[in-house]
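#struct-help
A.M.: can someone run this one for me? Single chain, 194 residues.
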Amino acid sequence: MRKSKPKSNTKQSGFIRLISGKHKGRKLPVHDVVGLRPTTDRMKETVFNWLMQDVRDAKVLDCFAGAGSLGFEAISRFAASGTFIELDKTAAMQLSNNATLLKLDNVEIINTDALTMLANNLKQQQYNLVFIDPPFRKGLVTPCCNLLETQSWLSEDALIYVEFEQEAQPETPENWQVIKEKHAGQVICRLYQR
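D.P.: on it. Structure tokens below:
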């Protein structure tokens, strides 16, 4: 008699695919976590076309890493290092497992609340490429942007990619200039230059 598997909110539900660079074509497992929306290959391709000249050797911060789709893509495209912040313990554990799977020694996974961490830049770290793609309808974009700026997380000419739901109009620091924008259904994507 076969036992049925218990249903769980943390089951493995699919994968993300790295679309270019040294890990091109690699598929990384993703768990089914509430609110997790990995960036689609199509959108990822657009974002990294925007960033084509800016990823190599970048210090990357992925503020709401989720499945790590953007952060791992940047690492695959020869970013110098990546810091992934993820609140959900299961998602953070999967990020660590995927970093091990890719044999990465330049990635740090931090299992904590992004806004809490960003409120104190204790190590005085600065990043020149930042991804902000939080769970939708939680009002996280504006405070995240403000903390990145006020707590000195950004290099002088940092690039910041922000993804948010169409009905939200987050406020960003005055010294951030929109250099690219795309609407995809109910989602707006913007690339800012500091």
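A.M.: thanks! The first strand starts at residue 12 and ends at 17.
D.P.: also worth noting: The first helix runs from residue 41 to 50.
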